[in-house]
């Protein structure tokens, strides 16, 4: 039943993303407002934020366990479906990428930057970014967004249930949206911790879903990848798994200068297709685990 719940949630979430509906980030921001007031000198404290995420996760674990104990485990599945739909999703990205691609194809790099600047990491939002650097920054933001809002949740839901999925997604949300900016780097360390195994599992999946030979050449740089953060592991893996220099704009520009106007759209399409195939691999993997009786 875990497989059915996740598959339904994934399909519903993809549909909502196409309609640009139900942004889970807004729900996290509203929930984290309880941490907006902190005593002076405690701006870097993470206790309140961790409690706001861990306590609901433990409540969910207890609720699911209690229902299973009393023989009503099936009653938790509708709740799990709703929560997974809320935890997953990247609404807004589809239209943003379309507008960015249109601006890129017109050669309007300034317009392309204006479309995506709010999605780029804070340290990479400079208006003087080269087109190549801007595109790589956007590609990284896209890969990380999909990983944290789909693959991370899928992994922890299958491994630890909906409570674990809530905690993992909550730690990522804390690193991005906690009102006290001084505490965000500490939350990021916790988010990297819960992302360590899923990121490396996705790294292997990218090789299976893409160019395996290319991925094998890069595998030594990411597995086990001690000292590398999640974004580095996934970007190196994606670069090796993609063909046609989809994540190497400088090389593409040297080899195919006449096709530069189409590079932005082609690259993003290749990345999205690779991630979609990777999720299909994960879904098939979970199905096999269910058949084997592991899940």
What can you see in these coordinates?
- With 295 residues, the chain is an all-alpha fold.
- The chain has one domain.
- It starts with a helix and ends with a helix.
- GO terms for molecular function: kinase activity.
- InterPro entries: AmpE, Beta-lactamase_Reg.
List keywords for this structure.
globular; 13 helices; 295 residues
In short:
With 295 residues, the protein is an all-alpha fold. It is 73% helix and 0% strand.
State the helicity in percent bands.
over 70%
What characterizes the major β-sheet?
none
Distance between the termini: 9 Å
Strand content: under 5%
SS-based class: mainly alpha
Could you give the order of the helices and strands? HHHHHHHHHHHHH
Q: How many β-strand stretches?
A: 0
Mean pLDDT across the residues is 88
- Global Rg: 20 Å
Question: Ranges with pLDDT <50 over ≥5 residues?
Answer: none
User: Number of helix segments?
Assistant: 13
User: What gross morphology would you assign?
Assistant: globular
- The domain tally reads 1
């Amino acid at each position: 039943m875990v497989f059915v719940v996740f598959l339904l949630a994934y399909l519903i979430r993809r549909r909502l993303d196409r309609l640009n509906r139900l942004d889970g980030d807004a729900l996290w921001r509203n929930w984290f407002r309880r941490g907006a007031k902190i005593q002076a000198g405690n701006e870097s404290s993470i206790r309140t934020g961790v409690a706001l995420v861990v306590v609901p996760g433990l409540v969910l674990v207890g609720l699911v366990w209690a229902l299973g104990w009393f023989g009503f485990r099936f009653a938790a599945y509708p709740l799990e479906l709703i929560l997974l739909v809320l935890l997953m999703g990247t609404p807004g990205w589809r239209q943003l990428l379309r507008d960015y691609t249109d601006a890129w194809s017109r050669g309007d790099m300034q317009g392309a930057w204006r479309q995506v600047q709010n999605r780029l990491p804070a340290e990479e939002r400079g208006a003087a970014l080269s087109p190549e650097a801007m595109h790589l920054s956007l590609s990284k933001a896209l890969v990380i967004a999909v990983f944290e809002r789909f693959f991370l949740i899928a992994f922890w839901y299958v491994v630890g249930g909906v409570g674990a999925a809530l905690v993992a997604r909550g730690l990522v949300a804390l690193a991005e949206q906690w009102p006290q900016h001084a505490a965000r780097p500490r939350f990021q360390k916790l988010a990297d911790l819960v992302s360590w195994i899923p990121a490396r599992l996705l790294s292997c999946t990218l090789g299976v879903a893409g160019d395996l030979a290319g991925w094998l050449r890069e595998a030594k740089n990411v597995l086990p990848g001690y000292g590398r953060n999640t974004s580095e592991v996934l970007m190196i893996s994606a670069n090796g798994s993609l063909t046609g220099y989809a994540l190497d704009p400088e090389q593409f520009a040297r080899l195919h200068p006449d096709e530069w106007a189409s590079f932005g759209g082609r690259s993003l399409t290749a990345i999205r297709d690779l991630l979609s195939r990777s999720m299909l691999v994960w879904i098939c993997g979970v199905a096999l685990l269910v058949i084997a009786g592991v899940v």
